[in-house]
Amino acid sequence: MDDDYDKLSPQEREEKDKADRARLYISRTPALPYKWKQELPEVDIIVPVPKGTRARDLVVTIQKKKLSVGLKGQEPIMAGELSQEIKLDESTWTLEDQQSVEIHLEKVNKQQWWENVLVHHPKIDTKKIQPENSKLSDLDGETRGMVEKMMFDNQQKQLGKPTSDELKKQEALAKFQAAHPELDFSKAKIS
């Protein structure tokens, strides 16, 4: 694999490195009977099953904190307590090409990386996960508003202008002064 990398042009290396960084962590630990990847809101798992497997041959149980996948009459391929809680009504499984079970789990806490799928399986270092850059339009309303406010405040600071909070204070003071013209604010220090 390193030999292939060495044969790439600098531009191809840069593109490959960028793609590798953008790709979220996928567990390929040989001891695990599945592969998985995650984004902040979700976890996707691929469990290989014997070719020709039909949905009626499977026993898949998805619960808020538990997951089990196996073939009828056999020990489960994977089973145990989930690393974190999931949203049951938004989590699904499908059989793909009669050779793998694809499980989609929606996280309850969409702001936390999972260290593992099942608590008894090896943990990953979540500090090494480099998520793709997101667009403002991808964010929920509250988060988007907070990010836009931070961007505005940063731009205002760079221009030497008041931040949104300072503008609100100035506006409130102006309204108060207009409502109370009898008060003298000429020597007032406001912070």
Integer-rounded radius of gyration = 26 Å
**Low-confidence sequence ranges:** 22-29
- Mean pLDDT level: 84
Residue share in β-strands: 25-35%
Secondary-structure element pattern, one letter each: HHEEEEEEEEHH
Q: Structural class of the secondary elements? A: alpha+beta
Total individual domains: 2
CATH fold description of the largest domain: Immunoglobulin-like
Beta strand count: 8
CATH arch. level architecture of the largest domain: Sandwich
Enumerate the strands of the largest sheet in spatial order, edge to edge or round the barrel.
1-2-3-8-7
The major sheet is characterized as: 5 strands, antiparallel
CATH class of the largest domain: Mainly Beta
Distance between the termini: 61 Å
Count of helical regions: 4
The helix content, as a percent range, equals 25-40%
Overall 3D shape: elongated
Characterization of this structure:
The chain is of the alpha+beta class and 191 residues long. The protein has two domains: 25-132, Immunoglobulin-like; 144-179, no CATH class. It contains four helices and eight strands; from the N terminus they run ααββββββββαα. It has helices spanning 2-7, 10-22, 141-158, 164-179; strands at 26-27, 35-39, 42-48, 58-62, 66-71, 78-81, 86-96, 100-107. The relative contact order is 0.11.
